[in-house]
Amino acid sequence: MRTWRLRSVLRVPHPPAAIFPFFADAANLGELTPPWLSFRIETPTPIAMQVGTLIDYRIGLHGIPLRWRTRISRWQPPHAFADEQLRGPYALWHHTHTFVAVAGGTEIGDEIEMRPRGGPLAGLAMRLFVRRDVERIFRYRTEVMAERFGGRATDASLEWLAG
Fold first, then answer.
1. Is the whole-model pTM more than 0.90?
2. In a 3-state reduction of DSSP, which class is residue 44?
3. Which tens digit of pLDDT belongs to each residue from 95-136?
4. Which domains does the chain carry?
């Protein structure tokens, strides 16, 4: 089955060690999630982040309440971590977060490998609404990160890669 990959990159003027703690606190995920998703964490906080950590959420997608469970599959502070959906709206969702030191700061990267539910209709779902929704979510996320860490959202990149 086909998968889709989205890559988002934002440069900010702080070293990875100064930025990573914000992302290491799962409670901050709500700040990076657009209000229209009605996001809330159900797992009691604080959440000890490490490989194998499970986090349960609720979201509202187009008015439909959904449960989402992710597992931390990679944990390499302050450089990277990854989460994968175990239960939720996608047939496949794997999100890698990277924090690469560059001249003058950090390049914050998000790469998502995904496949909507729908089997043979997944491509149609992508074209009709999933692609647009995911782009909106990551543009919002980039704007919040830029404001919080001093980057410029207008300089960020968001691109779909070959699946």
1. yes
2. coil
3. 999 999 999 999 999 999 999 999 999 999 999 999 999 999
4. 4-158 (3.30.530.20)
